[in-house]
């Protein structure tokens, strides 16, 4: 390649810029040189270095959640890609349009099983992406990347992988960047009027309808429509159940908000018609005896992804459409019909949820209890606060207690990808600088991505991490308790003890302002200090190691 | 399952015990309860908890390297497996018999795409394992695991994956554990006499033969045979080149030792016959113009894995056999022939290697230089020290300077799996408690598995970590320098800066005794303190961030 020619790496950068991508989250190696070199000429394009790929991908996920736009992670060979997969799984379930680029050794080295080569690297990503493609010609790079970016944004949105061999990136690329305006997905799908009519009829004649708000409601900007529908019906709304929860679809401050979905709740069990709007039905944790739907209730499932409807259990009415359009049509359809008289039990249902604090950890002298921590945290969450939740044992308690104003007051993951919150918080803060971001992690989850702290410090991303440190993999002990074997009889829990880690000291080692607390009532003062401190901060709060969760 | 019945989990533990497995490296979740529960009755079986799967697998790799026996890692679902893959790649290249067990959700949840389920989890492991199998029936668990353990130990040895669904592990399993003695691989393969004769003839008539010692020489206990052959021939021996290096096959203290293989070295370039014994030929880092063999030299490749011979470039003679048997036969064949007169240039070649210190980092005031660190480290390595090398920029310098007495004085990886050394050092120490273990890491590599420090502290595994902290991904900057574009012209290296991390503070946060140094001459005193301290220790030494490697 002569100096006047454009490199493949530069063509890749130009394609990203054309799509409006202004930063990349990366953990690079030698194979990314051509791209990195091209960025030197573009000071408006930010290379965010992460010292572990899990952080690059979870930050990209958070960024995509926060902006609703593309986010790009650029990793190094199959080993870098492998390190990111658990967190890519979180992006998949959140339907985040994260494009993962992976630098590969030159083709000749790939066939020679050279350094950091395995056959067919993209296959590793397959369980987590919509599509994977390794570019084969330098001149195809703009088109291949353009296609990947378009595909990530095409509904159902989600991660896409592109492999970029070093030889192509270093070679001259003559082809122009396609015009993204001709490719950018804009079309929303409207519902089939027949299904809308059927759904409206069911809802209009229901005695006690229930609306369930899924993550897609917020992602498709359908919150106001769901609020309006709920008010039109006088029906209570719950957010998705904990195992499926990604982000709220209905504001917890609304009088019709009635908590979290759970078919076993008495006030859910007697509902005769349930509309699941943009929900995943369901993410099961244990083998179900039956679908998590009350006996005899009729099920309406609205989802923008046709693949979700009837995926596991059958429905009475399935509506495939953009949630915003569909909810609006559903409401106008109801306007032409006699609606229900209004559900006088909404307030009671809401009160029941709010009053029931769930199974409470026992009070024990000298050790703080996670319920107290959750209460203290709830009081610290402001309207413009985004909470990123990544705590296994205390996750359910936090979800129940913390305010949930969509689209951005609460983000979590249903992926089981521990440590996701460490990077996701960074991406959400970069995406929404006007919001405060508080990431709440368990000490176990924290250990899966401590390296995010360096990124926070290096790029002065003012996230506040709250690590609830019970010095335990309490979830493991809880599983042994459920198993009910020798361990529980003897009170010996192999795999539980995670004691002796000073999370605050680790944070300081990464250059993050950190405090360790032993009492929940110290949280407000500590948070005030964290808020006053420029840059990121971490608060570690020690809790009862013997509490294994509900 | 009734209380008197044996669970699948217990059957799995019994199978491991029958094979002599006495510990498992694990990062468990709820799906591992049945197995963990069974371990409570076996205090002689150790559950080593790791707070990240990369540590579990690299520790198992180190343990397998140290013992030459099976090592087992037990992970949690596809997300746990994904987190381990980069380090599983290191086990693959070291041919370590690491069996990776992965707990999966019950079958019904797998088909329901339940929590932490993806289809066909074992496919994720495929690039890194010899075989992957998910057990389908509880009664098959002992047989399936028995087969996996056998397969990992069967030449060519290497990692094997087994998926264990929670429903099978919780169910009753009635089948007995197979008798491992009927399955344990014991047979070694002897070479075809014709190839041995051809090789002997080439070596006997060579004017300047060269022997290259590969990792398989140490793994198959063939070091003494290689020494004897070298002495019989009066031929110099070099260890594998840096990119392929896993462990030495020839003692650097032997007078015939002449450094590291590199076809461009003047004293290698004139060799007329080269025997590659147990080597991987080759692991290429950049697109080769040609094979890394001197013009006109004849190539004999001996390897226990038939797949290695002629894998990339052709050979003159290929011998497939256990390296120990083959080297012994080769020597007796040479006894019947006129050998070479002896190579009077061996001493000169050795001297040339030892005198050439390689490209030296420039001396700069106020910042230490990695060559000085390597020299200081070399003086601290004793006969009973195992060095685990995992430093990208300084790896070549360390390999050149540190003593290499096989089988255990030096272990490294050719996998590009950064952070491997953090866990591998733990496994090697547990395998060989009588040896001192010093793990030398770059700060970049350290960041890929800091969680290993907790394992070292928690289980009091007295490894000494030496982290060479140049506050840089110097390898990225070096790649930009090689690329020769805008970055090098402007002296701007995106993706290089990793400043502001206090590694010693992080180590203290994990409960590890830690010191930060600024001068190599402080190393002996710091090492004395580390050695005197019970339990693990870490020494961080700051070096020049502007040195980008040779």
Kindly summarize this structure in a few lines.
Two copies of one chain form a homodimer. Chain A contains 23 helices and 18 strands.
Describe what you observe in this structure.
Two copies of one chain form a homodimer. With 550 residues, chain A is an alpha/beta fold. Helix content of chain A is 37%, strand content 16%. Chain A has 23 helices and 18 strands. Chain A has a six-stranded parallel β-sheet with strand order 2-1-3-4-6-5, sandwiched between helices. In chain A, helix 23 (523-532) links the parallel strand 17 (513-517) and strand 18 (537-542). In chain A, helix 1 runs parallel beside helix 7 (141-153), helix 3 runs parallel beside helix 4 (77-93) and helix 3 (53-67) crosses helix 17. Chain A is globular, with a radius of gyration of 24 Å. The first copy, chain A, starts with 7 loop residues before the first helix and ends in an 8-residue tail after the last strand. The model of chain A has no long low-confidence stretch (mean pLDDT 95). Chains A and B meet through helix 2, helix 4, helix 19, helix 20 and helix 21 of A and helix 2, helix 4, helix 19, helix 20 and helix 21 of B.
List the helices and strands and how they pair.
2 copies of one chain form a homodimer.
Chain A: H1 8-18, E1 23-26, H2 33-39, E2 46-49, H3 53-67, E3 71-76, H4 77-93, E4 98-104, H5 107-111, H6 122-125, E5 132-134, H7 141-153, E6 160-165, H8 166-170, H9 193-205, E7 209-213, H10 215-219, H11 223-233, E8 237-239, E9 257-260, H12 266-269, E10 273-277, E11 298-303, E12 317-320, H13 323-335, H14 346-355, H15 370-380, E13 385-390, H16 395-401, E14 410-412, H17 420-431, E15 436-442, H18 443-446, H19 452-458, E16 464-469, H20 474-483, H21 486-490, H22 503-509, E17 513-517, H23 523-532, E18 537-542
Parallel strand pairs in A: 1-2, 1-3, 3-4, 4-6, 5-6, 7-8, 7-10, 8-9, 10-11, 11-12, 13-14, 13-15, 15-16, 16-18, 17-18
């Amino acid at each position: 390649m002569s100096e006047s020619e454009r490199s493949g790496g530069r063509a890749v950068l130009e394609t990203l810029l054309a799509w409006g991508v202004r930063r990349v989250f990366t953990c690079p190696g030698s194979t990314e040189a051509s791209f990195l070199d091209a960025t030197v000429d573009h000071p408006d394009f930010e290379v965010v270095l992460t010292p572990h790929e899990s952080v690059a991908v979870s930050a990209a996920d958070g960024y995509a959640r926060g902006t609703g736009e593309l986010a790009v992670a650029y990793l190094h060979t199959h080993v870098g890609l492998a390190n990111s997969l658990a967190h890519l799984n979180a992006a998949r379930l959140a339907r985040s349009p994260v494009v993962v680029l992976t630098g590969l050794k030159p083709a000749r080295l790939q066939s020679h099983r050279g350094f950091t080569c395995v056959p067919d690297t993209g296959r590793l990503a397959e369980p987590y992406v919509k599509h994977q493609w390794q570019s084969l010609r330098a001149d195809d790079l703009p088109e291949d990347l353009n296609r990947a970016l378009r595909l990530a944004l095409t509904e159902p949105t989600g991660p896409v992988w592109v492999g970029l061999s070093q030889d192509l990136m270093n070679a001259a690329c003559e082809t122009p960047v396609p015009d993204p305006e001709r490719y950018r997905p804009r079309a929303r799908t409207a519902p089939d009027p027949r299904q809308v009519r059927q759904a409206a009829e069911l809802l209009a004649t229901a005695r006690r309808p229930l609306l369930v708000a899924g993550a897609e409601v917020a992602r498709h900007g359908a919150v106001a429509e769901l609020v309006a529908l709920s008010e039109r019906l006088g029906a209570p709304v719950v957010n998705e159940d904990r195992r499926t929860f990604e982000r709220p679809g209905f504001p917890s401050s609304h009088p019709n908000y009635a908590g979290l979905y759970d078919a076993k709740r008495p006030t859910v069990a007697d509902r005769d018609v349930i509309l699941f709007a943009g929900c995943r039905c369901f993410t099961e944790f244990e083998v179900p005896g039956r679908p998590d739907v009350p006996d005899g209730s009729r099920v309406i499932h609205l989802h923008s992804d046709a693949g979700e409807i009837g995926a596991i259990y059958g429905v009475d009415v399935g509506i495939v459409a953009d949630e915003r359009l569909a909810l609006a049509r559903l409401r106008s359809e109801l306007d032409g019909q006699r609606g229900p008289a209004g559900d006088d039990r909404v307030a009671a249902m809401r009160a029941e949820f709010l009053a029931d604090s769930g199974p409470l950890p026992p009070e024990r002298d000298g050790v703080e209890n996670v319920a107290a921590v959750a209460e203290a945290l709830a009081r610290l969450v402001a309207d413009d606060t985004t909470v990123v939740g990544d705590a296994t044992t205390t996750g359910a308690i936090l979800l129940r207690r913390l305010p949930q104003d969509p689209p951005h007051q609460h983000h979590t993951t249903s992926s089981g990808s521990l440590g996701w919150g460490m990077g996701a918080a960074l991406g959400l803060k970069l995406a929404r600088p006007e919001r405060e971001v508080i990431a709440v992690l368990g000490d176990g989850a924290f250990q899966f991505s401590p390296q995010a702290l360096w990124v926070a410090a290096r790029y002065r991303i003012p996230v506040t991490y709250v690590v609830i440190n019970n010095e335990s993999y309490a979830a493991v002990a809880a599983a042994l308790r459920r198993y009910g074997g020798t361990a529980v009889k003897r009170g010996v829990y192999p795999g539980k003890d995670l004691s002796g880690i000073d999370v605050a000291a680790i944070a300081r080692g990464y250059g993050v302002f950190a405090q360790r607390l032993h009492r929940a009532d110290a949280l407000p003062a500590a948070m005030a200090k964290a808020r006053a401190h420029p840059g990121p901060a971490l608060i570690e709060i020690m809790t009862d190691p013997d509490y294994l969760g509900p």
